[in-house]
Amino acid sequence: MSRRIQGPGAASGPAAQFAQAVEALRADYLPAAMPRVAVALSGGLDSMVLLRLAHAHGLDVCALHVHHGLSPNADAWRDHCAAAAAGLGILFDWRAVVVAKGKSGIEAAARKLRYAALGEMCRAHGAGVLLTAHHLDDQVETVLLQLLRGSGPAGLSGMDPANRAPGLLGDERLAMARPLLGVARADLERCARELGIAWVEDESNTDPRYARNALRHQVMPALAVAFPGYQQRVARSSAHTRSAQRLLDELGQQDLAACLAGDALDLARARLLSRDRIDNLLRHWFTTRRLAMPSTAWLAQMVAQILSARDDAQLLVEHPDVQVRRHRDLLHLVPHPPELAGLRDPDDAGIIDRHAQAFVWHGEAAIDFPDYGGTLHFDPAERGVDSAWLQGQSLAIDFRKGGERLRLAHNRPTRSLKMHYQASGIPAWERGRLPIVNAGVDLLFAAGLGMDCRHVADGPGRVALRWESATAAIPG
Q1: 218 lies in some domain
Q2: 22-31 pLDDT, tens per residue?
Q3: Domain ends where: 303, 335, 367?
Q4: Average pLDDT of span 85-93
Q5: Residue 452, domain extent
Q6: How many Cβ atoms from other residues are within 10 Å of residue 132's Cβ?
Q7: Does one domain contain both 306 and 362?
Q8: What's the CA angle centered on 51, arms 48 and 52, to 5 degrees?
Q9: Neighbour-count burial of 112, counting CB atoms closer than 10 A to its CB (0-12 exposed, 13-18 middle, 19+ buried)
């Protein structure tokens, strides 16, 4: 390490803590040779010091900047970053993003776009690690904000020194590290002044309308007077909480393995657990499926319904990302179904459309039916419908109205679609969105079940109908 960075108190100063963090990163995330590292460079004090430390440490560094366009000074910040990187002989790249305020506010929207852009640039330049300049004061702010929001152990754990965040960076191979997390901002400012590092100030950092700024400028100075050194103690508490959360994650992983039945949760097994373990199990399940963490009130409502609903009840709990449904004592996470023009009257969302969509098959391999939520395939088959006969038919696709009957095999009886769906274990919420195909007055095909055997035979020139839903699956 360059002696220029060493100074009074270096054993515990920014340079020493940076070196320790890099060694921990090597041991925990990068057992092989250290790859190129990228520094998320905003131009502020923290990231400018981080860039200098990474360069002095002899790492293969590139500097990446995200231009949010939210400040009239954004161009000047970008130019400052570019000049700083050039002065050190470091590769510099930047991306512009357009931030639109979402449901969670402009800060959350900017953060999401910023990390996505940083992940894209890391991949473009072969960086295996992204270094961010979060420091001790940032950690304390995060923990206090989570405490004031009533968060549980996961929130009160604060930021990890290093982790993989594919949901943010878009790549499971990328590691994200915060090597300055144990360094106070005052020490970073002292280091910057000693080394003559220039930085820019973001005017939004003084805007008290943001909760983080209110903490930073009003609450934390008062805490420093009443409780000197409180930052280290808060950080120590968050480390203890992070350890407790790891134990909860291990328990959740064990319970999930014991209760999982395919993609669903076996409620008979889950009910054997204590209420706290059920809550932890469900939170862990949502985490593994990369879904937004449910609130305490939402979770309480869902668990109450799970434990008290009748066996035949059609349980449905809405979540921003999914629907939670129960079928045969299994709990399913189901994507929100799209609105289908073929299912609902566009003029009255509560009235079922009684008009089927007529079509003629001209030998295509597949036909898209967006109003019905998917694609109808015509697969060549040794056993199926005669293709010549099928091309001469007036066909219609529709959703079932009730009373339709289907015979799947000559040695099996003709039964209602409802009975077939029940026998096949198809959940009730899927049945109404599975289309049927008629040839004239005859039912030819029912999605999820198959073709009526009265039109099926062996021989050349035959096709089998197959329905493919366009509904996106939830990540497993």
Answers
A1: yes
A2: 888 888 877 6
A3: 335
A4: 97
A5: 352-469
A6: 23
A7: no
A8: 90
A9: middle
Give the separation between CA 95 and CA 73, rounded to whole angstroms.
Answer: 16
Distance CA 203, CA 54 (A): 27
Rounded Cα gap, residues 454 and 406, in angstroms: 9
Calculate what percentage of the chain has a pLDDT beyond 70. Answer: 90
Is the distance from CB of 287 to CB of 299 less than 8 angstroms?
Answer: no
Task: List all residues 6 or more positions away from 473 whose beta carbon is below 8 Å from its beta carbon.
Answer: 335
Contact yes or no for 51/37 (Cβ under 8 A): no
Report yes or no on 344 lying in a domain: no
| pLDDT per residue as tens digits for the range 284-306 | 999 998 888 878 888 888 888 77
Closest CA to 182 of 47, 19, 17, 24: 17
For 395, the enclosing helix (H) or strand (E) is strand 395-399
Strands 357-359 and 366-369: unpaired
Provide the edge-to-edge strand list for the sheet that holds 457-469: 366-369, 374-386, 457-469
Using the 8-state DSSP alphabet, how is residue 177 labeled? E
What's at 333, amino acid-wise? L
How many angstroms separate the CA atoms of 332 and 216, rounded? 43
pLDDT at residue 221, rounded to an integer: 93
Q: Tokens 């029912």 identify what position? A: 446
As a whole number, mean pLDDT of residues 459-471 equals: 89
Q: What are phi and psi for residue 209, nearest 5 degrees?
A: -70, -25
pLDDT in tens, 56-73: 999 999 999 999 988 899
Other Cβ atoms within 10 Å of 371 Cβ, number: 15
Residues 383 and 270 in one domain: no
- Percent helix, strand and coil across the chain, each to the nearest 5: 40, 25, 35
The answer to whether 217 and 208 have CB atoms below 8 angstroms apart is: yes
- Residue 322 sits in a domain whose CATH number is 1.20.59.20
In a domain, 81, yes or no: yes
Query: What's the token pair of residue 268?
Result: 């008979």
**Do 156 and 175 meet the contact criterion of CB atoms below 8 Å apart?**
no
Q: Which two tokens stand for residue 278?
A: 């059920």
| 127-131 and 36-40 strand pairing | parallel
Torsions phi, psi of 310, nearest 5? Answer: -65, 155
- Helix intervals (H) in 125-263: 136-148, 153-156, 166-169, 185-195, 211-214, 220-226, 230-259
Strand partners, 327: 330
**How far from 16 is each of 27, 56, 145, 311, CA to CA, in Å?**
17, 12, 29, 61
One domain, residues 113 and 148: yes
Residue 246 lies in a domain: no
Number of folded domains in the chain?
3
